[in-house]
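Here is a typical sample entry:
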Amino acid sequence: MYHDLTEGKISRSLLLFALPMMAGNLLQQFYNIADTLIVGRVLGSNALAAVGSAYTLMTFLTSIFLGLSMGSGALFSIYKGKNDQDSLRNAIVHAFALIMAVTVLLNVLVYIGIDPILHFLRVPDEVWDGMKAYLLVIFAGIIATSLYNYFSCLLRALGNSTIPLVFLAVSAVLNIGLDLLFVAVLPWGIRGAALATVIAQYVSGIGITLYVLLKCRDLLPSREDLQFNRQILGEIGNLSSMTCVQQSVMNFGILMVQGLVNSFGPVIMAAFAAAVKIDTFAYLPVQDFGNAYSTFIAQNYGAGKKDRIRKGTRESFLISFLFCIVISAVVCIFAAPLMRIFVSAKETAVIASGVRYLRIEGAFYCGIGCLFLLYGYYRAVKKPGMSVILTVISLGTRVALAYILSAYIGETGIWMAIPIGWVFADITGLAYMKFQEK
C-alpha cells in the first residue's frame, strides 16, 4: 500500500505514514539493545563497553550507505510526485548499482583496517580483545544491512512504510531469541552476540529484497531502463553524496566523541554505551517523523504544491515539539531506572554517570527534533548541501566543546556539549529557511 502525501489532511497523512517507520526503527534498536542488555547482564561491564563502542563504529559505517539510500529516496519521491515512472525505474537501477558498489568496497576496507580503527578509537587494553572479536563477526552483516536500508528507503519514498516494519519485526524477534541462545545458554560470549545480530540482519535484508522482486514488479527495470542516463546519475550523485556526507560527518563526529569517552576508561565507556541506547530509543520517533516529513516535502515538491509544503512544515514542527517535551520529561524523571535496565544495580558509578548524561541531554530533545526536520526538508528540496552545513555546525560545536569542557569538568563536559551543538544548528537552519521564503 502506497500513501499519496500530495493529497488529504496533512497531519493525519503524515502520522499514518510515520507510525510504521517509528515502530520499525524502534524494533531495529532491539538489534543493539538486545546485545547491550544481555551482554551487560551476562558478560559484565568490559564486554558492555566493547559492544557499546562497536555500536558507535557500526552506526558510522552504516551511515555511509544509509545516506546514499536516503538521498536516492528523496529523488524517488520527487519522481513519484511528478508521476514520472520511466525516470523512477531508471533511478532505481542507477542508485542500486552505486550503493552496492560502495557497500562492498567499505566491507573490504573495514576488515583490512580493523586494528588501525581500534587504535583511532583509543580502545583500552582491557576492552580491546572483546571489541575486536565482536567486530570481526559483525562486519559480515554490512551487506545485509545495506540491502535492507536501500529497499526500505525505496518503499518509504514511494509511500509504503508498512512492509519494512514487517521484516524488521521478524528479524528483531529472531535477534533477541538468538542472543539469549548464543550468550546466555551457549558459551559463545561476545562473538555469539554479534552472530545473532548478523543472522537477523540477513533475514531482513534478503527478505525485503525478495519482496520487492516478487511483489513490486512495476518498479523493476525493463531493458530500456538499464541504459546509462548521465542526468539521472548526476541527480542521484548530488543528492546521495551530500546526504551521505551529512550522515557520515554526523556519525564521524560521534565517533570522535566516542574516542574521547574511551579515554576516560571502562566505567564511562559502559555508562555511555547504556545511556546512548536509551537516548537513541527516546528520540528515534522524531527522527523517523523527520524522515516521513522529508518524503512528504519531496512528493509535494515534485508536484509543485508550495502552499501545502508551507502548511505541512508548520504542522510538522508543532507535532515534533510536543512529542519532544513529553519524552524529555520521561527520560529526566526516570533516568536512574532506565539505566538499571542495562546495568546491574551494583555498578553504581556506571549508573551515576549515565544518569548525568541522560538528564543533561534529555532535557533538550526539542533541539534534535527540530534538527531532524531541517535535515529532511533540505534533502527533499534538493538542497542537501545545507544539511551538511547544519551537521558540521552541530557536530563541530559538539566535538570542540566536548574536548575543551571535559578538560575542566570531566565527562560532564562531553554531555553538555551535545545540546549546545543542536541549538546552534537549529538557529542556522531556521534562519536560512525563513530567508528562502522571502
Observations:
- The first helix runs from residue 10 to 43.
- Residues 10-437 form one domain.
- The chain has a mean pLDDT of 82.
- The chain has one domain: 10-437.
